[in-house]
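re the bet — no i am not wrong, look at it urself. input seq straight from the record:
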Amino acid sequence: MHERLPFFCPDVIKELEQIDFKEKTISQFCCNNGRELLSLMQLGAKNAVGFDIAENIIEQARDTAEKAGMDNCRFVSCNILEIPETYNGQFDFILFTIGALTWFEDLKPLFRKVSDCLKTGGILLVHDFHPVMNMLPLPGEPEFDEKHLNKTTYSYFRKEPWKENEGMGYMSETYKSKTFTSFSHTMADIISGVSCAGMRVLKLEEFDYDVGLTEAYDKKGLPLSFLLTAEK
């Protein structure tokens, strides 16, 4: 990992480099294979803990940390909503990245868990797909029309869960998998969830480029991704 903050896009790198990580304890919720959290340690954090519900993925993260000689970065397999209370008030910084929020039907208990685990003055950073992306058909879907990219197909306020058997497309190529159930959230759901958990939104940025699903809609005037920072 000699590259400067690999796995983060330039706008996120710019935000991360404005945060003081020296001697701080940081975490990533839904850390997947740990690559982002391990990369983030370049900025001087003292300790890190990554959480994810998938045991096999956590084992990959542990193996990578061990090979990199990073014994100050641990990985825990558990339901994010059931992170043990021993972690309450332990973190100066908590990170969510692409495709994490969609696995939670209700964001309020999720952000309450974040708030519980943050120290007073701790920072939450969320970088994810913009809710508007949930309205757009993706290439390969019958509704997708590359000649009419301003056409929306799904409701912004959709409550019905998404059910897919084609793997996690934002992480890898399409493949036949077990059923994944995910959920749409409005920007109001996100902001309200953060605020109701006792955190103050510091910044919300919206970008006209996608961060993992498709480049078809990039630079067409639609909000496709966002970056949110909040303080407890």
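see?? Residues 55-67 form the longest helix (13 residues). told u. also The helical segments are 10-16, 35-40, 55-67, 107-117, 187-196. so pay up
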